[in-house]
Amino acid sequence: MKLSFTTLGCPEWELDLIIKRAVEYGFDAIDFRGLTGEMNIYKLPEFSSQLSHTRDQIMDAGLKVSCFSSSVHMFSAEKYAQNLAEIKEYARLCSFFGTRYIRVFGGSIGETGRAEAIETIVRHFKETGAIAKENGVKLLLETHDDWTSCADVKVVMEQVDPEAVGVLWDLHHPIRTLGEQPEDTWAALGQWIEYTHVKDSRLLPDADGKFKYCLTGEGNIPLSDMYKLLERNGYDGYYTLEWEKKWHPDIENAEEAFPQYVQYMRNLSK
C-alpha cells in the first residue's frame, strides 16, 4: 500500500517540516496542493530557483511526489489560456521530479447543458492532454464538483486519449453527495482510475445532507469496503489523504489527522 497526503492538510507548514513529518508518520509520498499560502507552487523559490535542492531533499528522505494538484478547471473557456499555462508549468515539474500525474478539476458548468459541457471539456482535454503526454505525464480528472457522477465522467473518458487523461477517484464525493455506490463507480470508471483521494465524514443530524469531515474511519464512508474493492481489482496506485484543513480550519490539525490516517490504512492492509 502506497500512502500519500495533499498539503491542503498542513497549509502553514514549511517544506522542511512537510518532509520531516511525512517520514515521521510513515508516508511514502507527498501530493503538492499549495505551500505556505501559495496555491500555484511553481511561483515559489522551492519549485523554481531552488528546484534541484527541493528534489534532493525529497529523494534523500526516501519520499516521492505522487502528484501535483493544480487549480485548473477544465470546463472553463474564459481561463483556458491560464489553465494551459498552468499545466505547462506542472508538466515541467513532473518531468523534473519523475512524477506521473497532474490533478485537474472538471469545474462548474453553470447553466450550460450537460451535452455541451461534455463537448467543451473533451475539446480542452485534447490540447492539454497532448501537452501532458509529450512530457510523459497524465492529467487526472477528479470525481468532484459538476463531474462527480461516474456516468458524466465516463462519457468524457470515452472521448479522450487514455494515455493522456485518467481518473482520480475521490472516494468521498460520489457516495456522500450523490449516493453513488462504490461498485457502480468502479464498474463505470475502473479502467481509467489511477489515483485516489481518501477522506471520511459523518452526516449532521437534521441538516439535509450536510456533513462534517472527521478522522479516517470515524465517519460512515465505507472506506474498508472501498479499499477491498480496489485491491480486488488490482489497483496499485496511491491512497492519498485529502485532509482539507485549508478550507475547513475547524477540523483536527495535521499532527493528529496524518498519523491517525497512516495507522488506519496500514491496518486495512494487514
From TrEMBL:
Gene3D superfamilies in UniProt: Divalent-metal-dependent TIM barrel enzymes (3.20.20.150)
Protein name in UniProt: Sugar phosphate isomerase/epimerase
Alphabetic keyword roster: Isomerase
Database matches in SUPFAM superfamilies: Xylose isomerase-like
GO molecular function: isomerase activity
Pfam families in UniProt: AP_endonuc_2
Domain Xylose isomerase-like TIM barrel: 20-266
